[in-house]
Q: What sequence folds into this?
C-alpha cells in the first residue's frame, strides 16, 4: 500500500496542472470539483497509507536519484512513517475541507482567477505533502520552499493591491531568511556526514560533536522560526492575512506554519542531544506565545486577532518541543489545525456575510443572522481557550504539564499566555456575535448565513475540534488512553531513551489542571462581560494600549534597524561606490590616458630646436646611464679626493 | 646586389620615361613593371641566381634573411604603387621623378638589407633619406609640406652627424668599419681583469644606436615623425611610414646583432627605457589626435615600440618575427593610407559614415586597423605575438611585455575611433572617385592580412624553403 | 701627437656644432653647424686612421692600414655635398614661400 | 568530426549570411543554421566519451588545430547551441536594419563561442576567445542603445586588456612547456615553479575575472547589458560569461594548481563580496536590464567562488549551474526585451499591472524569476545547492555570508515581479497586450527546460562527471 | 715643443676659435667666412697628418664649393643684415649646457679609456693619405660604394631640380 504513496502528492500536482493550464477554458464548478476532488483522492490514499503504516510500520519509497555525485547521493524518496502519515491526514483532510469551503467563498472571482486560485491551492498542498513525505532534508527543503512560494502567491492573490503584494513579498523574504538557516544546517550535515537522509543522519548522529549538533539544530530552528512565525521572524504572518481567508485557514493556521514543528519533531533526536538548543526553542516559543498574545488583545481586525493567536499557539508548540514533549507538540498541531482552521473559516464566513468588512468594532450581534457560523465559532473558541473536554484543552495541557515538569517558570508564563488567549478569543467572540449590530444598515440588510459548501466544512471541523482531543487523553484520566503517544512512540523512541524523565505526582497534576481551568473560565466570563455591550468609542488608547495596538512597534523596529540601513547601504553602493569608486577607477584610467595624451602632445612643440635639444639631452643621459660606473664615480672622486 | 643594380637602373629609367612619355598615367604601369622586375631579380638572388657578380670586398654581404626582407619591402612597394600609383602621379608636377626617387629609396633599402660595413650602412641610409627629404617636400606650394621637408632634412642631417661620430669612435677603437668585429680588450678593474670593450667603442655603438633610433622613430628621438608624416603628401607618408621604416628596423637589427658581445646588461635597461618611452609616447599621444593622418604617425611610433622587442630579445624567433611584423605592419598601413588618400577630409569626422557610402573601403580599413591593433585572425596578431613571444622566451623582461600589452590596449582606443567613425557615426564621408580596381586591390590586401593572420605559416614557410 | 688631443679637439668642434644647431635660429647657420659636426668627424677619422697606421707600421713599414678611414672621410664629403645641394634647395624653396629662414617659424606642424 | 562541424557550420553560414543582401532569407538561414548546430550538439551529447578533432595548423609554433569535446564542453556547446535558436526565435519579429550583417555577426559569435569551448590548443583557444569578442563589439555598437558606442567600447577595451594579459600568460607557459607546444596536455604538465604559478595565475585570472565578470572587474557589464541589443545581451550573459568560468576550470585550474591553491581564499572572498555587493545594488535598481545584470554578477560570483573552493561538490554545482544560469538569464532577457519592445520603457517606476494584460507572459516570467532565485524544483536550485555545499565545506562563515545573497535575491527578484506585473496598470501598461506566439513558445520551452532540469538534474550531472573527476583525479 | 706640436696647437686654437665665431657672429655672412676659416684650419690638420688628398679635397669641396654655395644662397636671400631674431635666452642656455654636457661626458670617457693612453696619431709621416695610395684602395676595395654614391648624387640632383625649379 505504501507503494502508492507517490499518488498522494501526484493528485494535487495534477490538479494544479489542470487548473492552471485550463483556468480559462474550464468552468468554475469543474475547477472546484477538480481542485477539491484531487485533495479528496489524496486524503483517501492517505487514509489507506495510514492504516498500512499502522499495520506494517515505516517504509521508504525511492522514486529516482535527485542528485548523485561522488560522495553525495540525494534520492528523491518518500518516507512514510507515523509522523508523516499523521501530517498527511491533516493536510489532505483539513485541506479538502478548505478546498470545499473555497468553492463557495471564492465564487465571485472571475473564472480564470478562480482557476488560478485552485491551482495555487493545489500546488500548495503538493508542496506541503512533499515537505512531509520527503525522506531527506533536501526533499523536505523542496517542499519547504515550495510552500513558501505558494504562500507568496496566495497572499498576493489579489495582485492589483500593492499592499497585498508587499505582504506577500515580506512573507517570502522572511521565510527565506529562515530557509537560509535551514540550508546551512543541511550543508553542515552533508559536510559532516555526507548524507541528508533521515535514517542515515539519525543513525550516525553519534559521529557529530556536540558543537556540530548544537549548531545544526540551532540553524534548523532558524528555519523553523521563519516558517512557523516565531520571534524574531513572525511579523510576516499577521500581514499574510492579506490573502483570501481560506488560504489563511489552510496555510497560515493549519498546515504550512506547522512545518517547523514537523521538522523539529522529525529531527527530535538531534534536539534531544542538544539541550542548549532545546532551551532556546522553549524560550523562543514561550516568548512568542506571550508576546503574540499581548498583541492579539488589542487587535480589531478579525483576521489579525486570529493571526496573532496562531503565532501564539505556534509558540506553545515550540515550547512543547523545547521541553521535550514532542508528542504534545504534534498533538497540539493536530488540534490546532482543527480549531484554528475552523476559526478562520468561521471568520471567513463572517467576512463573506459582511461584504469584506473585517473590523470587529463594526460587527456585533451576528449570532442571530448566522447561527451555524456562530455555534461552530464558539466551539472553536472554547477549544482554543482550553476548556475541557474540547480538543485544545488536552493538547495545551500536555504541553504545559511537560513545561511544568521541566521548569515551573515555563509553566506559569505559559499559563499567563493561555489566559490571554482565552481573553482575546472571547473578546473577539463577543464583539462579533454578541450585542447589537454596529455596521451600516446596508450591511445589516445583506447579512445571511453562508451557503452549505461553507457551512459543511465548519460543522465537520467543529466536530473534530470537539472530539479531536480524545486521541490524546492524558494518562491522568485513563491508563493507556493516550493513543497518539503510542502511535508516535517509534518516532520519538530514541529521544525518549535519552531524555531525562520528570514526572509530576498525580495529585499535583490534578491541582494544576483544575486551577488553570478555573482561571480560564473566569477570564472568559470577564471577557464576555466586558465586550458584550461594546460601543465604539472614539477616545484613544493610552500607555501600553498604544504599544499593543501598534504591535510593540516591531515592524517599525525592523525597518529602522534592518531594512532602512540595508537600503541605505545598497543606495550607497549603487550611487557612490559603483559609480565613483569602481567605475570611477576604470574611467579614471581612461581619463588619465586622455590627460596624458593632452600633456604629451605639448612635448611635440613643433620647434626643431627643442627636438634636437631633447635628443642631445637623451644622448647625454644614455651615456651617463651606460657608464654610470665610471663617469659619475670618476667625477665624484675627483671632486672629493 | 641584383636589387641594388636593378633598382638604380630603374630609377634612371623612370627619370627618362618622364621625359619621353607625355602621358603620365603610363608611368604607373612602368613602375609596376619595374617593381616586378626588381622582385624577380631579388628572388633570383635569393635562390642563387646572380645577374652580375660584383666583388664588394665584404662591404656587402647578402644573406637569406636580408634578401627575404628585401622581398617583403619590394612587394610592399609593389602593393603600394598598385594602390596609390595614381595618387603619386597627382602628387606634384614631377611624377616621373617621384617614381625615380622611390626606386632610389629602394636601392637604399637593398643596401641596408646587405650591408656589412658601417660605410655601407651610412651610404644606404643617406640614399634612403635624401630622396625622402625631397618626396616630403614635393607638395611645393604647401607650407606644411615645405616645413616638414626642412624639419626632416635638418634633423636627418643632424642625426647623420651623430651617427658619423659613432662610426668614427668605433673605428677609433677597432680600426675597422666592419659590423661584426667588436674589440674586446682586457681592462684591469679593481685588480681583476674582465674583458670588456673599449669605452670608445661603446660610446660609438651608443651613438649609432641613437641614430638608428632616430631612423625608426623610437622615443625620445621620434620627434620628427609626427610632423614629417603629417606634413608630407599622404601618398609619400604611406611609403615612408612603411617600407622605409621597416628597412630602418632591419638595418638596426643587423647592426646590433654583431655588437651583442659588447652590449652588457646595461644595454637591456637602456633599451627597455627606449621601448617604454616609445610605447608611451606613441600610444598615449595618438589617443587625442583628431587627424587620422597624424594619428597614424603616432601609431607608427607605437608600432616601432613593439618592433624594438626584436632588438630586446635578439633571437632567431625575433628575427622571424620582425619579418612578419614588417609584412603585417606595411600591409595594414599601406591599406589605410590608400584609403586615407582618397578621403577629402583627413580628420576623424571625415570618416563618419564611410561604411554607408563605401562599405568595401570601410571593411578593408577595419581589417587593416584590426591588424594594427593586433587582434587575432589578422596578421598584426602574429606580428605582435612573435615580438612578445621572443621576449618571454628570453625569460627576462616579462614586466616589459605586460607594459607593452597594456599599451596595446590603449592603441585599441585610437584605432577603434576610426572604426567607430566609419560604422557607428552619422555622416557622409566624402571621397574622391574610387575605381573598382582600387577596391579590388584593397580587398586583396585585406585578404592577405587575414590569410597571414590565420595561417602565418604561409608567409613563414616561405622563409625556410 | 697623442691621439687624445685629436679626440678632444674633434669632440670640442663637434660640440660647438651641436651647440650651434641648438642655439641659432637661422636655418642656414644651423645647417652650417651641422657641416661643422661633419668636419669634426672627418678630422677624427683621419686622426684615427693615422693612429691605426702608427700601430701597424711598427711591424710593417709598408702597411696601408688606416686608408679606409680616410676613404670614409672622402665618402662623407661626397654625401655632405649631396646633402648640401638638397638642403639648400629645400631652404630656397621654403624661403620662396615664407620669405623667412627663421627656424622658430616652422611650427605649423605640432602637437 | 562533430566538433569541427560545430564550429564550421556557424562560421560558414555566418559568412554566407553576410552576402545575402538584407533579405528575410538571412533570418531564416541563421535560424536554420543554428538549429543544425543544435542537432549536432545534441548528437555530441548523446555520444559516449570525449570527441576530438586534430589537424595541423602552425607547425613552427607548436600549435595545432585540435579540438576536444569532453563533458563540460558538450554541455556548454549544447548551451550555446540552444541559446542561438532561442534568441533568434524570440526576436524573430524584431526588425534590424542591415539584418544580414546582424545575423552574420551573430553566427560568427556563435562560432567563436563554440571554438572557445572546444579548443584544446592554447593558441587556438586564444583565437576563438577574441573571435567571440569582435563580432559582439560590432553588434553592440551598431544595434545598441543610445550610449552604445562609449559603453561597448569600454566593454571591449576592458576585456581586451584581460585577453592581452592572458596572452602574456599563455606565452610564458608556452615557453616553459617541455615540448614547446600549445597543446592542452603540455600546458597541464608544464609544472611551473611556485612563484611562476602565482604570476601566471594572476595574468590568466584577470582575463577570466573580467570576462565573468567578478567584483571589482564588473563595471563594464551592467552598462553593456543595458545598451546592447537584447538579442546580444542574451548571448553575452547567457553564454559569453560562461567563457570565463569555463576557462578557469578548463585551463587555469589544471595548469597552475599551486597558484590556484594559493589564491583560492582571496578569490572566494572577492567573489562573495561581489555577490553581496551586486545583490544589494540590484535591490535599488529601477531598470529591468540593469537589475538582471547585477543579479547575473551575483550568480557568477557564486560560481566563481564554487570553483575556487576546489571540491567536487562545488565544481559539480558549477557545471550544472553554468548551463542553467544560461537558460534562466536568457529567459529573463527575453521578457525584458518583450517589455521594452512593446512598452518602450524598462523602468519599474513606469510599469505595473502587466499581469492583467499579459497573464501568460506573467506566468512564464514568474517561473523564470523563481528559477533566478533558485527555488527548489527549478533548475538553478540543484546547482546552487551543490555550490553552496562546496562553499560550506570550504568555510562555513563564508558560505553563511554568501547565503545572504539568497535572501537578497528573493528581495530584488520579487521586487521586479511586483513592480512589473502586479499592482494596477499605469499609463504605459494601459494598452499592453499579450506577447506574440513565438515568444510564448520560446519561453514555454525554456520554462519546460527549467522545470525538467530542476526535477531531474541527473543527466546533466552525468554529462559533466568526466570533466570533474578528471580534475580531481590526481589530487 | 716641436714644430708639429706648435702647429697642432695653433691650428686647434684657430679651429676652435673660428668655429665659435660661427656661432657668435650675428651676420650670417660672417658666419660663413668664419666657417671657411675653420675648414682651412682643419685642412691644416690634414696636412699635418699627412692626409694631403683630403686636405685638398676639403679646401676645394668644402671651403670652395660648398661654402660658396652657402654664401650664394645667403646673398640670394639677402640675409646679410644682422636681423636674425635671437632665441630665447633660456633656450640658448639650455643649448649650451646640453652641448657642454655632451662634450663633458665624452671627454670623461676618453680620459677613462686606458687603452688610448699610449696611442699616438702619426703626424707628418705615413703616406696612406697620398692620392696615389688612396686612389688605389678606392678603385680596388671601395669601388662598389664609389659607384653607389652615384645613385646618391643622382637622387640629390633630381631632388635639387625638383625642389629648386620654379613651377
A:
Amino acid at each position: 500500500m505504501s507503494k502508492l504513496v507517490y499518488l498522494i502528492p501526484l493528485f494535487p500536482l495534477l490538479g494544479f496542472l489542470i487548473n492552471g493550464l485550463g483556468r480559462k477554458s474550464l468552468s468554475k464548478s469543474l475547477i472546484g470539483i477538480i481542485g477539491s476532488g484531487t485533495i479528496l483522492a489524496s486524503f483517501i490514499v492517505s487514509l489507506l497509507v495510514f492504516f498500512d503504516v499502522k499495520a506494517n510500520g515505516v517504509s521508504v519509497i525511492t522514486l529516482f536519484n535527485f542528485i548523485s555525485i561522488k560522495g553525495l547521493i540525494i534520492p528523491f524518496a518518500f518516507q512514510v512513517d507515523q509522523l508523516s502519515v499523521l501530517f498527511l491526514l491533516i493536510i489532505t483532510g483539513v485541506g479538502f475541507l478548505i478546498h470545499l469551503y473555497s468553492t463557495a467563498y471564492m465564487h465571485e472571482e472571475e473564472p480564470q482567477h478562480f482557476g488560478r486560485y485552485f491551482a495555487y491551492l493545489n500546488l500548495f498542498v503538493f508542496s506541503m505533502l512533499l515537505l512531509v513525505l520527503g525522506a531527506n532534508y533536501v526533499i523536505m527543503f523542496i517542499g519547504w520552499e515550495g510552500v513558501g512560494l505558494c504562500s507568496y502567491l496566495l497572499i498576493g492573490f489579489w495582485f492589483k493591491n500593492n499592499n497585498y503584494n508587499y505582504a506577500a513579498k515580506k512573507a517570502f523574504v522572511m521565510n527565506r531568511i529562515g530557509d537560509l538557516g535551514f540550508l546551512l544546517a543541511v550543508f553542515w550535515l552533508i559536510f559532516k556526514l555526507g548524507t541528508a537522509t533521515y535514517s542515515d543522519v539519525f543513525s550516525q548522529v553519534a559521529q557529530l560533536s556536540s558543537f556540530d549538533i548544537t549548531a545544526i539544530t540551532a540553524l534548523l530552528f532558524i528555519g523553523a522560526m521563519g516558517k512557523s512565525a516565531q520571534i524574531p521572524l513572525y511579523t510576516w504572518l499577521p500581514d499574510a492575512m492579506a490573502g483570501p481567508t481560506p488560504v489563511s485557514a489552510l496555510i497560515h493556521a493549519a498546515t504550512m506554519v506547522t512545518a517547523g514543528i514537523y521538522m523539529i519533531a522529525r529531527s527530535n533526536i538531534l534536539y534531544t542531544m542538544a539541550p542548549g538548543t532545546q532551551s532556546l526553542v522553549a524560550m523562543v516559543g514561550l516568548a512568542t506565545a506571550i508576546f503574540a498574545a499581548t498583541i492579539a488583545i488589542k487587535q480589531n481586525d478579525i483576521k489579525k486577532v486570529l493571526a496573532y493567536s496562531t503565532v501564539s499557539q505556534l509558540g506553545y508548540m515550540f515550547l512543547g518541543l523545547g521541553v521535550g514533549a514532542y508528542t504534545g507538540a504534534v498533538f497540539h498541531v493536530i488540534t490546532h489545525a482543527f480549531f484554528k482552521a475552523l476559526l478562520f473559516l468561521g471568520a471567513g464566513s463572517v467576512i463573506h456575510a459582511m461584504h469584506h468588512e473585517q473590523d470587529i468594532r463594526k460587527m456585533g450581534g451576528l449570532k442571530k443572522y448566522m447561527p451555524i457560523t456562530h455555534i461552530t465559532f464558539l466551539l472553536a473558541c472554547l477549544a482554543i481557550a482550553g476548556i475541557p473536554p474540547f480538543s485544545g484543552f488536552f493538547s495545551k495541557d500536555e504541553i504545559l504539564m511537560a513545561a511544568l515538569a521541566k521548569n515551573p517558570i515555563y509553566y506559569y508564563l505559559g499559563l499567563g499566555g493561555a489566559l490571554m488567549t482565552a481573553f482575546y478569543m472571547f473578546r473577539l467572540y463577543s464583539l462579533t456575535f454578541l450585542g447589537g449590530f454596529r455596521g451600516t444598515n446596508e450591511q445589516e440588510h445583506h447579512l445571511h448565513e453562508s451557503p452549505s459548501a461553507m457551512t459543511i466544512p465548519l460543522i465537520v471541523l467543529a466536530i473534530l475540534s470537539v472530539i479531536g482531543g480524545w486521541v490524546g487523553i492524558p494518562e491522568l484520566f485513563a491508563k493507556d488512553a493516550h493513543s497518539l503517544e503510542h502511535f508516535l512512540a517509534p518516532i520519538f523512541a530514541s529521544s525518549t531513551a535519552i531524555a531525562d524523565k520528570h514526572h509530576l505526582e498525580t495529585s499535583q497534576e490534578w491541582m494544576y489542571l483544575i486551577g488553570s481551568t478555573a482561571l480560564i473560565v473566569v477570564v472568559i466570563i470577564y471577557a464576555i462581560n466586558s465586550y458584550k455591550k461594546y460601543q465604539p468609542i472614539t477616545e484613544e488608547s493610552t500607555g501600553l494600549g498604544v504599544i499593543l495596538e501598534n504591535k510593540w512597534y516591531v515592524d517599525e523596529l525592523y525597518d529602522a534597524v534592518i531594512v532602512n540601513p540595508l537600503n541605505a547601504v545598497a543606495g550607497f553602493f549603487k550611487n557612490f561606490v559603483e559609480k565613483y569608486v569602481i567605475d570611477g577607477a576604470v574611467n579614471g584610467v581612461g581619463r588619465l590616458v586622455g590627460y596624458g595624451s593632452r600633456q604629451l602632445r605639448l612635448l611635440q612643440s613643433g620647434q626643431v630646436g627643442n627636438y634636437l635639444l631633447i635628443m642631445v639631452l637623451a644622448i647625454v643621459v644614455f651615456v651617463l646611464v651606460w657608464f654610470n660606473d665610471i663617469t659619475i664615480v670618476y667625477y665624484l672622486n675627483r671632486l672629493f679626493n | 646586389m641584383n636589387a641594388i643594380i636593378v633598382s638604380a637602373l630603374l630609377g634612371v629609367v623612370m627619370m627618362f620615361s618622364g621625359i619621353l612619355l607625355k602621358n603620365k598615367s603610363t608611368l604607373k604601369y612602368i613602375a609596376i613593371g619595374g617593381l616586378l622586375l626588381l622582385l624577380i631579380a631579388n628572388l633570383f638572388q635569393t635562390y642563387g641566381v646572380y645577374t652580375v657578380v660584383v666583388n664588394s670586398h665584404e662591404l656587402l654581404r647578402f644573406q637569406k634573411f636580408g634578401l627575404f626582407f628585401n622581398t617583403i619591402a619590394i612587394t610592399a612597394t609593389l602593393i603600394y604603387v598598385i594602390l596609390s600609383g595614381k595618387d603619386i602621379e597627382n602628387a606634384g608636377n614631377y611624377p616621373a621623378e617621384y617614381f625615380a626617387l622611390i626606386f632610389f629609396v629602394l636601392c637604399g633599402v637593398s643596401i641596408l638589407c646587405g650591408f656589412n660595413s658601417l660605410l655601407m650602412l651610412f651610404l644606404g641610409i643617406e640614399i634612403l633619406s635624401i630622396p625622402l627629404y625631397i618626396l616630403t617636400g614635393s607638395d611645393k606650394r604647401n607650407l606644411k609640406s615645405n616645413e616638414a621637408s626642412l624639419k626632416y632634412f635638418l634633423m636627418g642631417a643632424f642625426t647623420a652627424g651623430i651617427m658619423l661620430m659613432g662610426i668614427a669612435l668605433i673605428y677609433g677603437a677597432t680600426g675597422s668599419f666592419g659590423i661584426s668585429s667588436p674589440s674586446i680588450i682586457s681592462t684591469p678593474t679593481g685588480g681583476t681583469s674582465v674583458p670588456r670593450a673599449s669605452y670608445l667603442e661603446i660610446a660609438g655603438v651608443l651613438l649609432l644606436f641613437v641614430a638608428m633610433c632616430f631612423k625608426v622613430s623610437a622615443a625620445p628621438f621620434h620627434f620628427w615623425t609626427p610632423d614629417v608624416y603629417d606634413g608630407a603628401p599622404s601618398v609619400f607618408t604611406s611609403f615612408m611610414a612603411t617600407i622605409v621604416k621597416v628597412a630602418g628596423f632591419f638595418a638596426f637589427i643587423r647592426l646590433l646583432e654583431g655588437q651583442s658581445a659588447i652590449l652588457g646588461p646595461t644595454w637591456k635597461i637602456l633599451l627597455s627605457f627606449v621601448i617604454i618611452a616609445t610605447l608611451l609616447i606613441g600610444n598615449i599621444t595618438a589617443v587625442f589626435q583628431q587627424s587620422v593622418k597624424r594619428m597614424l604617425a603616432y601609431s607608427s611610433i607605437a608600432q616601432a615600440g613593439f618592433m624594438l622587442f626584436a632588438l630586446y630579445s635578439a633571437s632567431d624567433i625575433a628575427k622571424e618575427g620582425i619579418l612578419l611584423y614588417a609584412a603585417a605592419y606595411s600591409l595594414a598601413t599601406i591599406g589605410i593610407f590608400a584609403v586615407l588618400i582618397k578621403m577629402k577630409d583627413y580628420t576623424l569626422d571625415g570618416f563618419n559614415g564611410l561604411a554607408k557610402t563605401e562599405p568595401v573601403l570601410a571593411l578593408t580599413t577595419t581589417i587593416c586597423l584590426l591588424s594594427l591593433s593586433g587582434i587575432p585572425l589578422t596578421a598584426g596578431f602574429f606580428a605582435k605575438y612573435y615580438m612578445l613571444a621572443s621576449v618571454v622566451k628570453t625569460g627576462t623582461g616579462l614586466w616589459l611585455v605586460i607594459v607593452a600589452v597594456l599599451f596595446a590596449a590603449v592603441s585599441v582606443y585610437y584605432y577603434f575611433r576610426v572604426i567607430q567613425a566609419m560604422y557607428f557615426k552619422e555622416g557622409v564621408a566624402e571621397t574622391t572617385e574610387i575605381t573598382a580596381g582600387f577596391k579590388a586591390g584593397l580587398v586583396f590586401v585585406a585578404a592577405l592580412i587575414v590569410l597571414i593572420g590565420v595561417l602565418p605559416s604561409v608567409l613563414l614557410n616561405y622563409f625556410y624553403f | 701627437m697623442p691621439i687624445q688631443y685629436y679626440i678632444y679637439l674633434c669632440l670640442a668642434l663637434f660640440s660647438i656644432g651641436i651647440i650651434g644647431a641648438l642655439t641659432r635660429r637661422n636655418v642656414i647657420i644651423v645647417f652650417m653647424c651641422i657641416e661643422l659636426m661633419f668636419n669634426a668627424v672627418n678630422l677624427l677619422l683621419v686622426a684615427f686612421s693615422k693612429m691605426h697606421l702608427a700601430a701597424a707600421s711598427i711591424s710593417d713599414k709598408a702597411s696601408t692600414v688606416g686608408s679606409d678611414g680616410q676613404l670614409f672621410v672622402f665618402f662623407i664629403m661626397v654625401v655632405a655635398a649631396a646633402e648640401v645641394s638638397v638642403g639648400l634647395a629645400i631652404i630656397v624653396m621654403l624661403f620662396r614661400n615664407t620669405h623667412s629662414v627663421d627656424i622658430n617659424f616652422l611650427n605649423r606642424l605640432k602637437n | 568530426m562533430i566538433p569541427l562541424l560545430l564550429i564550421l557550420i556557424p562560421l560558414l553560414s555566418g559568412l554566407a549570411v553576410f552576402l545575402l543582401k538584407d533579405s528575410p532569407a538571412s533570418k531564416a538561414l541563421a535560424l536554420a543554421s543554428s538549429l543544425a548546430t543544435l542537432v549536432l550538439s545534441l548528437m555530441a551529447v548523446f555520444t559516449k566519451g570525449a570527441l576530438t578533432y586534430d589537424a595541423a595548423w602552425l607547425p613552427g609554433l607548436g600549435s595545432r588545430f585540435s579540438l576536444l569535446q569532453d563533458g563540460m564542453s558538450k554541455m556548454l556547446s549544447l548551451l550555446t547551441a540552444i541559446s542561438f535558436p532561442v534568441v533568434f526565435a524570440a526576436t524573430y519579429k524584431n526588425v534590424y536594419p542591415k539584418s544580414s550583417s546582424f545575423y552574420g555577426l551573430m553566427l560568427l559569435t556563435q562560432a567563436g563561442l563554440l571554438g572557445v569551448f572546444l579548443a584544446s590548443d592554447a593558441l587556438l583557444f586564444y583565437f576563438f576567445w577574441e573571435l567571440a569578442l569582435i563580432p559582439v563589439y560590432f553588434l553592440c555598437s551598431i544595434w545598441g542603445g543610445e550610449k552604445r558606442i562609449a559603453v561597448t567600447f569600454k566593454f571591449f577595451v576592458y576585456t581586451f586588456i584581460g585577453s592581452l594579459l592572458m596572452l602574456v600568460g599563455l606565452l610564458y607557459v608556452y615557453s616553459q612547456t617541455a615540448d614547446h607546444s600549445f597543446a592542452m596536455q603540455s600546458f597541464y604538465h608544464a609544472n611551473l615553479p611556485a612563484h611562476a604559478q602565482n604570476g601566471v595565475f594572476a595574468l590568466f585570472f584577470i582575463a577570466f575575472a573580467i570576462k565573468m565578470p567578478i567584483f571589482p572587474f564588473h563595471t563594464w557589464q551592467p552598462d553593456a547589458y543595458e545598451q546592447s541589443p537584447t538579442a546580444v545581451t542574451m548571448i553575452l550573459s547567457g553564454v559569453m560569461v560562461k567563457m570565463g568560468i569555463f576557462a578557469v576550470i578548463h585551463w587555469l585550474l589544471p595548469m597552475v594548481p599551486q597558484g590556484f591553491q594559493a589564491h583560492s581564499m582571496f578569490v572566494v572572498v572577492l567573489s562573495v563580496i561581489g555577490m553581496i555587493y551586486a545583490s544589494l545594488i540590484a535591490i535599488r535598481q529601477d531598470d529591468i536590464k540593469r537589475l538582471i545584470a547585477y543579479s547575473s554578477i551575483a550568480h557568477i560570483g557564486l560560481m566563481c567562488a564554487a570553483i575556487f573552493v576546489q571540491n567536487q561538490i562545488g565544481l559539480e554545482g558549477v557545471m550544472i549551474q553554468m548551463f542553467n544560469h544560461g537558460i534562466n538569464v536568457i529567459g529573463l532577457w527575453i521578457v525584458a526585451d518583450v517589455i521594452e519592445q512593446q512598452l518602450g520603457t524598462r523602468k519599474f517606476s513606469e510599469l505595473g499591472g502587466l499581469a492583467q494584460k499579459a497573464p501568460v507572459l506573467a506566468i512564464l516570467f514568474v517561473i523564470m524569476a523563481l528559477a533566478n532565485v533558485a527555488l527548489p524544483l527549478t533548475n538553478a536550485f540543484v546547482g546552487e545547492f551543490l555550490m553552496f555545499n562546496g562553499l560550506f565545506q570550504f568555510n562555513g562563515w563564508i558560505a553563511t555570508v554568501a547565503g545572504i545573497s539568497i535572501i537578497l535575491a528573493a528581495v530584488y527578484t520579487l521586487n521586479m515581479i511586483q513592480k512589473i506585473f502586479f499592482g494596477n496598470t499605469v499609463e504605459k501598461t494601459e494598452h499592453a497586450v499579450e506577447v506574440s506566439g513565438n515568444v510564448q513558445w520560446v519561453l514555454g520551452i525554456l520554462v519546460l527546460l527549467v522545470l525538467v532540469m530542476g526535477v531531474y538534474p541527473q543527466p546533466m550531472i552525468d554529462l559533466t562527471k568526466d570533466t570533474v573527476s578528471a580534475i580531481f583525479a590526481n589530487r | 715643443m716641436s714644430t708639429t706640436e706648435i702647429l697642432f696647437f695653433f691650428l686647434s686654437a684657430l679651429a676652435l676659435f673660428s668655429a665659435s665665431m660661427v656661432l657668435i657672429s650675428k651676420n650670417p655672412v660672417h658666419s660663413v667666412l668664419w666657417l671657411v676659416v675653420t675648414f682651412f684650419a682643419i685642412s691644416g690638420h690634414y696636412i699635418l697628418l699627412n692626409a694631403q688628398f683630403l686636405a685638398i679635397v676639403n679646401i676645394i669641396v668644402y671651403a670652395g664649393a660648398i661654402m660658396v654655395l652657402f654664401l650664394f644662397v645667403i646673398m640670394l636671400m639677402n640675409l646679410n643684415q644682422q636681423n636674425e631674431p635671437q632665441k630665447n635666452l633660456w633656450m640658448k642656455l639650455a643649448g649650451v649646457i646640453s652641448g657642454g654636457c655632451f662634450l663633458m661626458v665624452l671627454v670623461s670617457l676618453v680620459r677613462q679609456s686606458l687603452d688610448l693612453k699610449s696611442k699616438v696619431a702619426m703626424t707628418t709621416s705615413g703616406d696612406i693619405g697620398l692620392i696615389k695610395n688612396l686612389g688605389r684602395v678606392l678603385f680596388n676595395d671601395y669601388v662598389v660604394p664609389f659607384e653607389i654614391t652615384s645613385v646618391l648624387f643622382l637622387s640629390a640632383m633630381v631632388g635639387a631640380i625638383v625642389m629648386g625649379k620654379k613651377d
